[in-house]
């Protein structure tokens, strides 16, 4: 068997095939160390510390011991490396899980279980029903007649309806015959691996003939085989070459805004450091010249005869070393630790644990947490994320009466329905156990024999494209192409109108126990323009009837004038259904005259055989017969939303987060769901639909929409029209209203492709950003990513993408934060995501509680950290003026080494991990508390400068007060205490106490841990101080610990304590003044909230009220078919029928021909469709 | 609802206060009353401490005599390094107008002497001074060894630049009787310095022990002859030496030189009268444009504090009180508006509950209305 897969472009050169193994991990054991170190030293700060370390090894300028830098550096790098390694380990693990899935592969003429990763190009794989496809396959044969198979592509494009794939007639003959399959030796020449999901080009050469291969012959990785008990396929693309993997963008190293800001700030600090160094170096030169020179000769300091300039140069580097602590190396590691803590809180959150699937939330990336508090845009997938992808028949309106409304306890009602089912013996056995209908009025109506109700249900049982099948247990199984239809037919079945079977000419149903066979005369297929489908049947009594179901807008125009009253009431009902987010269909029938129909049928046959304008003629004929219909009623099917979606969406949009829905599904479905889950609302001012098929059209539509928008804005005279992002946190500003203006934009994939072109891009972006909601439908996975990239790049906003399927992977990867819905069958989305949980509703808690807290804590932490280190380091600058700029440190070297990592790290970490300004309940109840994060208010450059100024002030106080006090002083026993060592100890002790008091003031949520850490740190400081100044340790290492006896003596002096006390008071009091004033004059939302709640508690507890606006549904059509055209032909040609009535062998050629034609028409249809939508 | 398998329950996060972030906590609230009371308390406390400090500082009697230029001839002589062997003494008479009660301490005070220059302050050998290894001169650059490569003991710039004036205070009872005021030369250094940080080699004869070493170039006598009268005050244990070796934090500093031995006339301190300092002028401060003085001072409970600390306390206290007044005023001014605007602003905070209830219940409402 020679199977070759080659590139046409490369002159049939054999292509280097990838194996089917997938990698999402970054490192392996060998590359880990170099790659990881390389990545780490790309961080400005780490590189800087390495540089510092080298500087410190030069004795001339080394003002600090090398251990002051290397200990923290090694610590930091190790911790980060360990963390990266664990992250990657888990990625390896999940990769392995996917790679080790089994599939049946034909090896040595035998079917053997083989791991996915060992599947090679050219292998022949056997797939069974409901299995995931392991690689991109060329379909060879299947269990269904004519080599048909059904696949679900939800993982790839989010569409839930089944698609048909169709093997080549020559290969489908191979059937299940292992030996023949094994000897299959066709050669496939095809396109190079690419990411186009809907295109495939290739040629199969086999048995001296060539067969062209289209997308219809290909099953892609990530699909699920449905309704087909088995099929065989040959692997064309494997692993990274598969369209699925080609569609998933590259794993990017994600950084948060704060990270970037921190990097900028670190650079600024470097600059600042340089300036300080230069000032001090100049000072040093001058001092050397003016004072130092004489001083040196006095000291016989002849060595080197340094001139002042070179001394200044050396001093510069020495000061760079000393002042390096303004960028503490522990900053990064602390940030990581805090993020890790926050990630654990997410993992531990019971309120994000979904018991249904036993899945807790999981923070898969631990470096992005605070960004969760800054989200401005959410890009959500629809299927599986917002919706459960389960359709259920909810309500119907028959002859002007609504059925299916229940206000009572549902479980109770349900049981009654089941028990009281009148024709239980027959119905029950066929009823779907999952079906719930809670209104037994309908049952009564059926029992009373209401002819309209019967006709309604009969229609549902007759007018569809469902195929039926009995499984081994004798149970009736429906093969559904669209879930909507499935829901309707199942509903009819449960009410006693059971669709039994069909042949190309007949449909058999069981009507309340009696089998009735209808003759199928014509099948008027669905397409996107007609938005309806009809069947014409002859019942046993010989009457010809046309049954039709379709969108209300279309069908209402086709009704007989006598239906006026019914139409208006049904229309009301439809509005009501639509308002509840149900998908509606209108059903109608028409009694046909025998003669009239014969004439029509003749014309149809003529049209079918016509050569030119066939389509037009047929559609005119369809129009002709589908008129003067009698309205029966309407159905309402619920596309079940995930739990809590509405609350979540509402609450997130109150938090000023814009939600975009990106789906591969149809426009109607997408819009419908958007309404259902409150992404779009009825009180929106306008919905713009962009559906142009050329660049010019798209641009024109965008322009119009914009004009429209601006026009409306101007007329509403709310003033300023600036696209978001600039409004402050002013309460109740009018501008707020305008910027969150209620507009929605709906754009489909085709227009999007044009709109993403460079010059239209900005128009799109501008419009899209002014809209509250954007719905993109029919988008490919890559387009999803492009949309995300667009917003990310041009709006400079933080984006979050959430999805569940493989088609969301690229979007998840390109957004700042990717969230995967876990617990689904496919793991791809989760594997690519940064956070995963089982239900969309947890997004609310993730953002509003965890995200908000993380951001709040991180900002607080950073402010304090910069403050602390400036206070700590800047003292050296002041001291420089008194020590001849000689790079003398103020503190003991040990203190410098330990200050950041031991003495002051834990309290601030505790604050960064545990602090809460308002509790989780309030965070969720008042979504506007989320806004400071979006506007980046808590930590930005301005805040940074405030912190730095605060630090410098503290350092000044820390220096000046001891200086003044030491100027002319003596100890209690008259001894010398203005010595350097006492000064160092005093400064260090003051510093530790001041920063501890400061962190105590900053901590707004004092848990036990905070207490332990703060008090503990101070205790640890004193114990280490006394230990290092003790006699014993000096006796052992006299050079390392020269401060012997200092702590005991200095800290025994009353005046030292007076100094420490004064320093603390003087550096803390002004800060409290500013804070109190600030809180009084410019209170933040959380301040207000706290105060308000306090006031509330004091007063009577009132619940939060808002004027309730009664929402009336203005929207007309909730119509959405998940249909695909072409099924009518399948049915009438009998192609997808079981072998119970096999087509005559002579007719095989004909059917094959037909079949080829329908595939052609279908593909051309779909082209047209996508162009026109 | 399907039953959750047993092992799945293990995936349920633990319901502990820590993991659910529900740790009981105390919330710091800065209500206006607490802040103001803290402020006033702090302010009052600071003023009180300041007052006490200022009052007690008034009791300090201190005399400082700057003798840099009084002994001008000596100063001039010391300018020239060649004359460093020559003796030069000068006498500075002064009148004590008020009695100095209690313990009196004599300090020398240097101006503009940078004992805190980094290279200087590192130029010493703790191992040598501890007599762990008296030949360890590794860190002592540039005073490690003398010209003939013999190690300097004690080595280093600090030791080399030791203050070496001799100051003798005489009480002039009358023109003929000059009583040398008895001074103690022990108890000058910190206990730990004297008994831990500095040790002599364990030998009866120090000079033997130090044989083969050179004295610092600036010294006149080798280290084992610093005080030949008192063996406990000799060698590395010489208290003047120890005091000098404790480097000062700032270029202006005073170091304890002698303590008054309260006997005879001086049992109560220094009586009023005429005194004179007899100074053997050795330390050449003019060469680095420094100055030196001799200080006589008494102490108070907090040691020899200056006015600075008291004044700063007073100032801080006053500023704190001022700040509390400002806060109080602003609070009063805002109070009228606050109660109103608070209500308004809270109504403005979108309340999710109502909204969501609205959104969720809406379909039902409409359904009922049908």
Automatic annotation (TrEMBL), chain A:
Transmembrane segments: 41-58, 64-82, 265-287, 316-335, 861-882, 894-914, 944-963, 983-1001, 1013-1036, 1056-1077
GO molecular function, one term: phosphatidylcholine flippase activity
Gene Ontology biological-process entries: Golgi organization; phospholipid translocation
Residue numbers spanned by region Disordered: 1096-1117
Record: active site: 381
Cofactor: Mg(2+)
Amino-acid positions noted as binding ATP in the UniProt annotation, renumbered to this chain: 381-383, 485, 526, 549, 583, 663-665, 778, 784, 807-808
InterPro entries: ATPase_P-typ_cyto_dom_N, ATPase_P-typ_P_site, ATPase_P-typ_TM_dom_sf, ATPase_P-typ_transduc_dom_A_sf, HAD-like_sf, HAD_sf, P-type_ATPase_IV, P-type_ATPase_N
Pfam families: Cation_ATPase, PhoLip_ATPase_C, PhoLip_ATPase_N
Catalytic activity: ATP + H2O + phospholipidSide 1 = ADP + phosphate + phospholipidSide 2
Localization: Endomembrane system; Membrane
UniProt EC number: 7.6.2.1
Primary residence: membrane
Residue stretches making up the P-type ATPase N-terminal domain: 15-70
The P-type ATPase C-terminal domain, residue ranges: 830-1084
SUPFAM superfamilies per record: Calcium ATPase, transduction domain A, Calcium ATPase, transmembrane domain M, HAD-like, Metal cation-transporting ATPase, ATP-binding domain N
Keyword list, A-Z: ATP-binding, Lipid transport, Magnesium, Membrane, Metal-binding, Nucleotide-binding, Translocase, Transmembrane, Transmembrane helix, Transport
Residues that coordinate or bind Mg(2+): 381, 383, 804, 808
Nuclease keyword on record: no
Keyword Kinase: no
GO cellular component, one term: trans-Golgi network
Family matches, as NCBIfam families: ATPase-Plipid, ATPase_P-type
Homology family: Belongs to the cation transport ATPase (P-type) (TC 3.A.3) family. Type IV subfamily.
Name under which the protein is recorded: Phospholipid-transporting ATPase
Native source species: Jaculus jaculus (Lesser Egyptian jerboa)
Gene symbol of the encoding locus: Atp8b4
């Amino acid at each position: 068997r020679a199977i070759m897969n080659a590139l046409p472009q490369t002159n049939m050169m054999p292509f280097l095939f990838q194996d089917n193994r997938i990698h999402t991990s970054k490192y392996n054991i060998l590359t880990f160390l170099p790659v990881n170190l390389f990545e780490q030293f790309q961080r400005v700060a780490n590189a800087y510390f390495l540089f510092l370390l080298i500087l410190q090894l030069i004795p001339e300028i080394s003002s600090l011991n090398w251990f002051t830098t290397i200990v923290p550096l090694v610590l930091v790098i190790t911790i980060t490396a360990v963390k990266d390694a664990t992250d990657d380990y888990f990625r390896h693990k999940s990769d392995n899980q996917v790679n080790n899935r089994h599939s049946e592969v034909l090896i040595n003429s035998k079917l053997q279980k083989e791991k996915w990763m060992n599947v090679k190009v050219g292998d022949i794989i056997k797939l069974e029903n409901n299995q995931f496809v392991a690689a991109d396959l060329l379909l060879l044969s299947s269990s269904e007649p004519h080599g048909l198979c059904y696949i679900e592509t939800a993982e790839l494009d989010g569409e839930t309806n089944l698609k048909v794939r169709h093997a080549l007639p020559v290969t489908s003959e191979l059937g299940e015959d292992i030996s023949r399959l094994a000897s299959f030796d066709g050669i496939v020449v095809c396109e190079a691996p690419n990411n186009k999901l809907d295109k495939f080009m290739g040629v199969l050469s086999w048995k001296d003939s060539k067969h062209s291969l289209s997308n219809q012959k290909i099953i892609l990785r990530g699909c699920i085989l449905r309704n087909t008990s088995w099929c065989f396929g040959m692997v064309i693309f494997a692993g990274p070459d598969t369209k699925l993997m080609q569609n998933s963008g590259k794993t990017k190293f994600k950084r948060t805004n704060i990270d970037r800001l921190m990097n900028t700030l670190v650079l600024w600090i470097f600059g600042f450091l340089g300036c300080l160094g230069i000032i001090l170096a100049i000072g040093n030169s001058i001092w050397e010249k003016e004072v130092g020179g004489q001083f040196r000769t006095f000291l016989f300091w002849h060595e080197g005869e340094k001139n002042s300039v070179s001394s200044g140069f050396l001093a510069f580097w020495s000061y760079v070393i000393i002042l390096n602590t303004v960028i503490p190396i522990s900053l990064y590691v602390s940030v990581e630790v805090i993020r890790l803590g926050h990630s654990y809180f997410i993992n531990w959150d019971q309120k994000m644990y979904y018991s249904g699937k036993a899945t807790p939330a999981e923070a898969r990336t631990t470096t992005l947490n605070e960004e969760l508090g800054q989200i401005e845009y959410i890009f959500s997938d629809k299927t599986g994320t917002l919706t459960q992808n389960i359709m259920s028949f909810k309500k119907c309106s028959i002859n002007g009466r609504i059925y299916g409304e229940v206000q009572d306890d549902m479980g109770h009602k349900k049981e009654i329905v089941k028990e009281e089912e009148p024709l239980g013996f027959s119905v029950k056995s066929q009823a779907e156990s999952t079906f719930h209908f809670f209104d037994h009025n309908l049952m009564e109506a059926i029992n009373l024999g209401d002819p309209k109700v019967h006709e309604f249900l009969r229609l549902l049982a007759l007018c569809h494209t469902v195929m039926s099948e009995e499984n081994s247990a004798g149970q009736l199984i429906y093969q559904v192409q669209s879930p909507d239809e499935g829901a309707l037919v199942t509903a009819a079945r449960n009410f006693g109108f059971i669709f039994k079977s069909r042949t190309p000419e007949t449909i058999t149903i069981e009507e309340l126990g009696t089998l009735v066979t209808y003759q199928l005369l014509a099948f008027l297929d669905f397409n996107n323009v007609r938005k309806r489908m009809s069947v014409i049947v002859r019942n046993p009594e010989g009457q010809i009837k046309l049954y039709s179901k379709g969108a209300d807008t279309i069908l209402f125009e086709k009704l007989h004038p006598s239906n006026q009253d019914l139409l208006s009431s049904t229309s009301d009902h439809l509005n009501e259904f639509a308002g509840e987010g149900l998908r509606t269909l209108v059903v109608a029938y028409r009694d046909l005259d025998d003669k009239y129909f014969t004439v029509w049928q003749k014309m149809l046959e003529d049209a079918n055989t016509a050569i030119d304008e066939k389509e037009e003629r047929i559609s005119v004929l369809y129009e002709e017969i589908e008129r003067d219909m009698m309205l029966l009623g309407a159905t309402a099917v619920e596309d079940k939303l995930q739990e809590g979606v509405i609350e979540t969406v509402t609450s997130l949009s109150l938090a000023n987060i814009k939600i975009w829905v990106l789906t591969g599904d149809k426009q109607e479905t997408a819009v419908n769901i958007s309404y259902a889950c409150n992404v779009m609302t009825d009180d929106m001012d306008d919905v713009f639909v962009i559906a142009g098929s050329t660049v010019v059209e798209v641009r024109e539509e965008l322009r119009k929409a914009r004009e429209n928008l601006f026009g409306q804005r101007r007329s509403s005279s709310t003033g300023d029209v600036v696209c978001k992002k600039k409004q402050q946190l002013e309460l109740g500003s009018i501008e707020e209203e305008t910027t969150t203006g209620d507009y929605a934009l709906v754009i489909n994939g085709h227009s999007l492709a044009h709109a993403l072109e460079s010059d239209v891009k900005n128009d799109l972006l501008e419009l899209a950003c002014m809209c509250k909601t954007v719905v993109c439908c029919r988008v490919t996975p890559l387009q999803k990513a492009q949309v995300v990239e667009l917003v990310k790049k041009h709006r400079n906003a933080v984006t979050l993408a959430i999805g569940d399927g493989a088609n969301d992977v690229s979007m998840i990867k390109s957004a700042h934060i990717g969230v995967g819905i876990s617990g689904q069958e496919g793991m791809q989305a989760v594997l690519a995501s940064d956070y995963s949980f089982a239900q969309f509703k947890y997004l609310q808690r993730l953002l509003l509680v965890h995200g908000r807290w993380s951001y709040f804590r991180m900002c607080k932490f950073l402010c304090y950290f910069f403050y602390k280190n400036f206070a700590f380091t800047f003292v050296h600058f002041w001291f420089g003026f008194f020590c001849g700029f000689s790079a003398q440190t103020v503190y003991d070297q040990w203190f410098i080494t330990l200050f950041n990592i031991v003495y002051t790290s834990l309290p601030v970490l505790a604050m960064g991990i545990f602090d809460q300004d308002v509790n989780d309940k309030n965070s969720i109840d008042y979504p506007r508390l989320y806004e400071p994060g979006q506007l980046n208010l808590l930590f930005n450059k301005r805040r940074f400068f405030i912190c730095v100024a605060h630090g410098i002030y503290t350092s000044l106080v820390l220096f000046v007060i001891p200086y003044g006090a030491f100027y002319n002083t003596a100890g209690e026993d008259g001894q010398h205490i203005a010595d350097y060592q006492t000064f160092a100890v005093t400064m260090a002790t003051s510093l530790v106490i001041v920063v501890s008091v400061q962190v105590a003031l900053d901590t707004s949520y004092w848990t036990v841990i905070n207490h332990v850490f703060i008090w503990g740190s101070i205790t640890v400081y004193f114990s280490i101080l006394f230990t290092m100044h003790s006699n014993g340790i000096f006796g052992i290492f006299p050079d390392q610990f020269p401060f012997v006896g200092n702590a005991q003596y200095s800290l025994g002096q009353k005046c030292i304590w007076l100094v420490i006390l004064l320093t603390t008071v003087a550096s803390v009091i002004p800060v409290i003044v500013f804070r109190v004033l600030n809180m009084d004059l410019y209170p933040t939302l959380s301040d207000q909230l706290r105060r308000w709640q306090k006031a509330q508690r004091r007063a009577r507890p009132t619940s939060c009220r808002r004027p309730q606006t009664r929402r009336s549904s203005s929207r007309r059509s909730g119509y959405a078919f998940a249909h695909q055209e072409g099924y009518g032909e399948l049915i009438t040609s009998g192609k997808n029928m079981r072998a119970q009535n096999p087509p005559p062998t002579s007719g095989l050629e004909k059917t094959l021909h037909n079949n080829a034609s329908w595939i052609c028409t279908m593909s051309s249809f779909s082209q047209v469709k996508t162009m026109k939508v | 609802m399907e039953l959750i398998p047993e092992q799945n329950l293990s995936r349920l996060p633990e319901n502990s206060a820590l993991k659910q972030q529900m740790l009981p906590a105390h919330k710091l609230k800065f209500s206006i009353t607490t802040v103001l009371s803290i402020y006033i308390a702090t302010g009052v406390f600071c003023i009180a401490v300041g007052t006490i400090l200022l009052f007690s500082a008034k009791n300090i009697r201190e005399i400082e005599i700057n003798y840099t230029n009084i002994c001008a001839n000596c100063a001039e002589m010391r300018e020239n390094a060649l004359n460093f062997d020559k003796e030069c003494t000068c006498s500075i008479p002064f009148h004590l107008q008020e009695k100095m009660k209690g313990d009196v301490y004599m300090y020398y005070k240097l101006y503009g002497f940078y004992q805190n220059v980094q290279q200087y302050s590192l130029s010493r050998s703790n191992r040598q001074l501890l007599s762990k290894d008296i030949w360890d001169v590794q860190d002592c650059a540039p005073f490690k060894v003398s010209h003939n490569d013999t190690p300097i003991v004690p080595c280093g710039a600090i030791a080399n630049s030791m203050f070496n004036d001799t100051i003798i205070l005489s009480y002039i009872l009358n023109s003929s009787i000059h009583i040398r005021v008895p001074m103690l030369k022990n108890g000058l250094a910190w206990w730990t310095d004297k008994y831990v940080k500095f040790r002599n080699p364990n030998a009866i004869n120090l000079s033997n022990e130090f044989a083969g070493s050179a004295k610092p170039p600036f010294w006149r006598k080798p280290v084992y002859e610093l005080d030949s009268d008192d063996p406990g005050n000799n060698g590395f244990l010489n208290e003047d030496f120890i005091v000098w070796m404790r480097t000062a934090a700032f270029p202006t500093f005073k170091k304890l030189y002698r303590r008054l031995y309260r006997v005879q006339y001086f049992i109560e301190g220094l009586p009023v009268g005429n005194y004179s300092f007899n100074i053997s002028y050795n330390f050449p401060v003019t060469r680095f444009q420094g100055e030196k003085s001799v200080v006589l001072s008494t102490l108070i409970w907090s040691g020899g504090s200056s006015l600075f600390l008291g004044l700063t306390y007073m100032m801080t206290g006053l500023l704190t009180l001022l700040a509390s007044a400002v806060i109080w005023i602003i609070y009063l001014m805002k109070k009228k508006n606050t109660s109103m605007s608070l209500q308004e602003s809270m109504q403005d905070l979108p309340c999710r509950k109502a909204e969501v209830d609205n959104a969720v219940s809406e379909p039902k409402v409409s359904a009922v209305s049908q």
